[in-house]
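Async update (no meeting this week)

Hi team, since we skipped the sync, here's where things stand on the single-chain job. The sequence we agreed to prioritize is pasted below, unchanged from the tracker. I ran it this morning and attached the output directly underneath so nobody has to dig for it. Comments welcome in thread, and please keep replies under the output.
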Amino acid sequence: MKKRLLAMLLAGAMIFGLAACGNNEGSTETPNAGETTPAGTEETGGEAKTVKVGMICIGDENDQGYTYNFIRGMEDTKAKLAELGIETGDWVVKYNIGEDSTCEDANIELAEAGCDIIFNTSYGFEDYMLKVAADYPEIQFVGCTNQQSAVDDLDNTHNAFANIYEGRYLAGVVGGMKLQQMIDEGTITEDQAIIGYVGAYPYAEVISGFTAFYLGAKSVCPSATMKVKYVNSWSDATEEANAAKALCDEGCVLISQHSDNTTPATAAQEAGAFHCGYNNDMTGVAPDASLISTRIDWSVYMTYAISAVANGENFDQDWTDNMADGAVVLTELNEAIAAPGTTEAIEKAEADLAGGMHVFAGPLSGHDHWDTSLTWSIGEGEYFAESDLSQDGGLSAPQFTWIIDGITEE
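Output:
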């Protein structure tokens, strides 16, 4: 199968270090209990089909953020496939795998165990996955949140990402509604409408995410500004809490995050600030602070890919989907603390997105994260295509790395 994009696109995007959430360096693997799924794709019981599925995770079932969202996706996928007459039984899951050679070993072990399709769930897994995929051309290998398979020479490798920036935009609308309520009620002044953002790394996925959140907030609270602190880890509960606390100490009254733990939510609550989360509903740990969260529903892609394997069909080597089709979702709104009119604001923004609104639309201006002397701007009626393949044939993985006016990094 011919690749659709030139390798030069990959080289340019890789400069910005696109990355998926999740890291647990130095941890050990924990095989999934009951690895009993029959090997191979075969007919069973007349119409039922069985596919053996492997998945490699950077965390484990105790991770209440990134890995938890993949585990939820796995369980939802099993149920959806069963309705289609496709059985996957107990998936073979490798937990606590580092972004290092242990990932290569895990891919080999799953391939030798007879898996028909293997999901690698963290960006840092992709290089190790590609080392193995060439030796097992009959097995399909998926790099979630990656992009190299759009340009490599292997027909059995695939990338998958959803337009999570759409969910972050909507979560930003929720946060912005709360900020504007506080301004209108005199709790804060316009110049005190400051958002604090706990970021993992200054990579495109994180930068595009907090930009989308900020633009959503600013659409309903024009005076909003944002401060970003990076913790240089996908998952460090203590540092995430420290960053959130520091942002609150600097005057931020709303906290959001691109990090794996719930500690930014609890830190926001302790400081009397509000919060919008990622990957999981955090109202359970911070009911007085957490307004809403957004996440990717991985069962949409997993069901699509596994169904293709079961039916002997080809499937996309670079896949993305959006909120309108259910690949990006919001958790339940915490109406006890949300601003009046928030539900209606969400519905309007969601309809705008479904109707073709571009999140990264001009007028926008700013500078490059890596070289602040480089400036950038787009005018009214222009937009940055981000990662939607329907927009100018972009890659599925995020590519936006500009720091727009109104956002400061610390």
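Quick observations from my side:
The CA atoms of residues 172 and 372 lie 25 Å apart.
Confidence is low (pLDDT under 50) at residues 1-46.
Reply here if anything looks off.
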